[in-house]
Specification:
The complex is a heterodimer of chains A (284) and B (321). Chain A is mainly alpha-helical and 284 residues long. Chain A is built from 14 helices and no strands. Chain A is globular, with a radius of gyration of 23 Å. Chain B has a single domain (53-317), classed as MetI-like (MetI-like fold, Orthogonal Bundle), CATH 1.10.3720. Chain B is globular. The chains are: A mainly alpha (284), B mainly alpha (321). Chains A and B meet through helix 1, helix 4, helix 5, helix 6 and helix 7 of A and helix 3, helix 6, helix 7, helix 8 and helix 9 of B.
Chain lengths: 284, 321
């Protein structure tokens, strides 16, 4: 049965309305970032700036670093976020894709206990760990360093990678390893040479989620960093929002830049997101 | 797919798995050793970082620790936990947290189901609508909070501007200026962002419902509304349960958006448990008390997680894939 014409019209109207509700705040973020200060503080908001300006983006990209230059601090924070999220993803995905295989395919005594242990860690609210972690990092001279953040983030992102990858392996046909074993591969050889290359879509999607988790993290970064040495972009934005709440233009420009990597990744991986999410459905 | 869990093989010993199990028994020791080798790096990365703080937080919660300096602090047993419940400022905080959790989770679920049904309908350019819906999920939480704080701004905000332009209200509102209104505004911002992910969970569930069921229902003369309640909702139940629990856990721990939008104010009206814990530990330096609060959050989250795991398992028993 073909859907009726009026039904088709109605669902398209609904879809357009939904798109408006979703896109309007994004548009406002973008518009605010290119509106000159006087227009941002106009008594009636200018929905479209009369004199759009890219000066804030220029400030962020070219401002002299150091001191109180907020725009340059945003740039440094973006770099920090990028380094921390990338390193975290690489480490977590590497150890997670090995461990995940054990959970998906191997039988061993403490399997249930250890799986439960990893998932429990993943569910722990950061606030429960942050006090002693702070003290420990202080003792190790790792406060306000990217290393300190990466070490901490890996403990959150690795359980996620383990779980998602193990679900991905479990969805792959078993014949693959069996064929490789028959051909004389060792277990490790079968994993490295046969399974991992075939699991590339799973690895990419898991890596994307891991990157987003690290990019979005706030509480640890807020407490563990204090200077441009390691401060990440969420911390820089939150700090600036608290201090100069009416100068939104610069926050908006920083916000646009901070959102670009995750938005692009999400669009790129859109079709994998349903599967990846539902199998890694333990983000808590 | 929704409930795909590596534990599946254990709970559902399919007949076909038998011979493999026997073979596994034969090579059991080698397999166990290989498993240890594979898991070792992950265990170091995770437990090496986390184990000490987990234990240490518990120890802190049993002591009256009032500074970040190491030293000997008096052991007070469960006194910190008892104090939480004796403290009159805790109950409003608990109230805000429960209100935030209930309202945001149910709003996200209701909207999420509606949007997922829409995205599952025969729309033109489906990929476009789906791409739009995924965007708020990818927006960093802090950027989302800062953006909505700006939209709600009483003097220059877009919300007041929009209400004026539409002729709905000429007097500017201080959206984040009074406690209960501010809490609801924060919830709205949270719902705007997180409905996105709920949509994709529900969509995954919808796609597992076979089209024939609807055909059959139509043959039997069921209305679209009837089919929704008799077919869609029951078959979506596992997805809905999963999403409910996950969002509940997440909402219960809410911190970031509160920090950036309201800082817990006005008049502490948007303080949630995680935020209150943060203040007690890091502003008031009550580390022992903060640790006790943190462990109470952990207990609540684990209780919710237990319910979640039980639902997953039941889903598997019912053969829901």
């Amino acid at each position: 049965m073909r859907p009726s014409r009026s039904y088709l019209i109605w669902i398209h109207i609904a879809a357009v309305l939904m798109a408006l509700v979703v896109l309007a705040p994004f548009a406002w973020l973008l518009i605010s970032s290119i509106s000159p200060p006087a227009e941002l503080l106009a008594s009636h908001p200018h929905w479209l700036p009369h004199e759009p300006t890219l000066s804030r983006y220029r400030q962020i990209f070219t401002g002299a670093s150091g001191g109180d230059n907020v725009a340059a601090n945003f740039r440094q924070a973006m770099v920090n976020s990028f380094v921390v999220a990338t390193l975290t993803t690489v480490v977590s995905l590497t150890v997670g894709s090995l461990g995940g295989y054990a959970f998906a395919r191997l039988r061993f005594g403490f399997r249930r206990t250890s799986l439960f242990g990893f998932l429990a860690i993943y569910m722990l609210p950061p606030i429960a760990l942050v006090i002693p972690l702070y003290l420990a990092l202080a003792n190790l001279n790792l406060l306000d360093t990217k290393t300190g953040l990466v070490v901490t983030y890996c403990s959150i992102v690795t359980p996620f990678c383990l779980w998602t990858m193990s679900n991905y392996y479990a969805s792959m046909p078993r014949d693959l390893e069996e064929a490789a074993r028959v051909d004389g591969c060792t277990r490790l050889g079968a994993l490295v040479r046969v399974i991992l290359p075939l699991a590339r879509p799973g690895l990419l999607t898991t890596g994307m989620f891991g990157f987003l988790l690290a990019w979005d993290e706030f509480l640890y970064a807020l407490l563990f960093t204090s200077t441009t040495n390691a401060k990440t972009i969420p911390v820089a934005i939150a700090e600036f929002t608290g201090k100069y709440s009416s100068d939104f233009g610069l926050i908006a420009a920083g916000g646009v830049l901070a959102s670009l990597p995750p938005l692009l990744l999400a669009l790129l991986f859109q079709r994998y997101i349903v599967g990846g999410l539902t199998s890694g459905a333990v983000k808590g | 797919m929704t409930v795909g869990s590596p534990a599946r093989g254990r709970q559902q010993p399919a007949p076909a798995a038998r011979p493999r199990a026997r073979r596994g028994g034969q090579g059991g020791r080698g397999e166990g050793r290989f498993a240890v080798a594979l898991l070792f790096p992950a265990a170091v990365v995770v437990f090496g970082v986390v184990l000490y703080p987990v234990v240490r937080t518990f120890v802190l919660s049993l002591h009256d620790v009032t500074s970040p300096m190491p030293g000997s602090y008096p052991f007070v047993g469960l006194q910190n936990y008892i104090r939480v419940f004796q403290d009159s400022s805790f109950y409003p905080v608990l109230g805000h947290t429960l209100y935030f959790t209930l309202v945001s989770t149910f709003a996200e679920l209701a909207l999420g189901i509606a949007v997922a049904l829409l995205l599952n309908a025969p729309l033109k350019a489906r990929w476009l609508w789906r791409s739009i819906v995924i965007l708020p999920w990818a927006l960093p939480t802090i950027v989302n909070g800062a953006l909505w704080r700006w939209i709600y701004n009483g003097q220059y905000g877009a919300l007041n501007g929009l209400l004026q332009a539409l002729g709905i209200s000429q007097t500017p509102h201080q959206w984040l200026g009074s406690p209960f209104l501010a809490l609801n505004c924060v919830i709205f911002a949270d719902v705007w962002k997180n409905t996105s992910i709920v949509v994709f969970f529900i969509l995954a569930g919808l796609q597992t419902i076979p089209e024939d069921l609807y055909e059959a229902a139509r043959m039997d003369g069921a209305s679209a509304w009837g089919a929704f309640w008799r077919i869609t909702m029951p078959l979506l139940a596992p997805s809905i349960a999963v999403v409910l629990i996950l969002r509940t856990i997440e909402a219960f721990k809410v911190f970031d958006i509160i920090y950036v939008m309201t800082g817990g104010g006005p008049a502490n009206g948007t303080q949630t448990i995680a935020f209150y814990t943060y203040l007690q530990a890091f502003s008031n330096q009550l580390f022992g008390y903060g640790a006790a609060l943190a462990y109470l959050i952990v207990l609540a989250v684990f209780a919710l997680a237990m319910v979640y795991l039980r639902i997953l398992r039941q889903g598997q028993m019912a053969g829901v894939e």
